[in-house]
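Practice set, problem 2.
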Amino acid sequence: MGETISGLAASAIPISAHFFPDWGEAIDGDLWLIPVWGLAAAAAFRLLFSSPFELWKEEKERADRGASVISEIGAGRPLRFTMLEFRFDYSNGPTGPLTEIRFSHENVGIHLVSYCLEDFTIEIDGQIQTTTPPPQTVFQQPATRGHFDCRLSSPITIPSFPSTVKVGFSYSYDTVPPTKVRRTGGVLRYVLCGPQLGDPVEGFWYESQIEE
């Protein structure tokens, strides 16, 4: 903007000289330059003071819009599932049955979240076991990660590896203070490469996903 005003001020001199050739002579000395220098001073003031303020204002508005979007995302869908951990019973040796699943998650919002694991099904090589989770409400602080352990209704001995495992689950959750009950979950597919601690686990892949 400042450059535009300066350009107009500079172009005023030859234009005035063209249309009013006697204009400069009618004014003593350099008094006719006063309006031109006034325009130039106004342009310099805008360039030095107004333009940086306008740039700062635009950046602040952009940052405020970004913070608002992040806040809305956190308030709308704050609980994020992150991973599963398959936990085996090694009390009788280096290998053992699958006894527990650990669900890991993250609260990406700015409010405390309360959640409950509603249902849980595990399928290993076509054999399905449904486990009723304990009616336990868990609280997760904002911007933190946590986990929830769920024991199987009965231990599962996996006959051979690698083995394909599908886990279906759903959480219900709400913020504190409460705003709206939501559900998240799905069916995940993994490939277990061995029963021992440290054996690789491939996945996960979503077979289906729930966001309500």
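Problem 2, part (b): a different protein.
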Amino acid sequence: MKFKHSHKNQLNSHKQKVQNWRHKKFTKRIKFCNLRFLYFSIFFNKIKHICKILKINF
């Protein structure tokens, strides 16, 4: 019984390691995408602002 339990724990810890690794990769990707999105939104807001000045509506 105890042996099975410990084996299960080992499996779980391995799963967690893999999940953590995937999570790290994923968060890196998300951070990258968020940065790109941030730049894009700033850029877009500037364009909108210029268009407002020029009396152009989106």
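Answer key, part (b): The chain has a mean pLDDT of 80. Residues 6-58 form one domain.
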